Amino acid sequence: MRPRFPYTVSIHHERHNYASFGAVAMIEVYTDGRAEPNPGLGTYGFVIYEDGGRVHSEHGVAGRAVTNNYAEYVCLIKALEYLWPRRDEETTVFSDSKLLVYQMKGEWRFKKGAYREKYLKAKELAGKFSNLKFQWIPREKNAEADELTNIAFAEAKGR
Length: 159
Fold this sequence. Notes:
Layout: E1 27-36, E2 40-50, E3 53-66, H1 68-83, E4 91-95, H2 98-104, H3 116-127, E5 132-136, H4 143-157
Parallel strand pairs: 1-4, 4-5
Antiparallel strand pairs: 1-2, 2-3
Helix pairs in contact: 1-3
């Protein structure tokens, strides 16, 4: 029997359950990062679902003088590091960052940016997952991860 994520209670929310379309268990990861101002205080938040149920969430500070793109990639790295023991399972990362999604899919090239180091680390980590996909979603489908970035921002500001 494969290990399961620890049980986590969550408030019911309305979201698209992509795993419900197939019989195979699938891990879904919703990621978000922000920087305010841009560049500025960067925060991140991610939520992990398995078989349609929320199993883990995390939020934190990505850096003090970072860009939105940097915070997005820090978030992806944190999520992939958390999922490392499950790297051979079917996993889809959902993000409202077109830059992150299309760069990770190899459809857009990295040109330049302060997030270069994080981009390279994310590509390296992702390359070691056997069944990892990336999917862009509109911001309104990413409300939980977005809320976690806001919580991290408020905590970092001492609010």
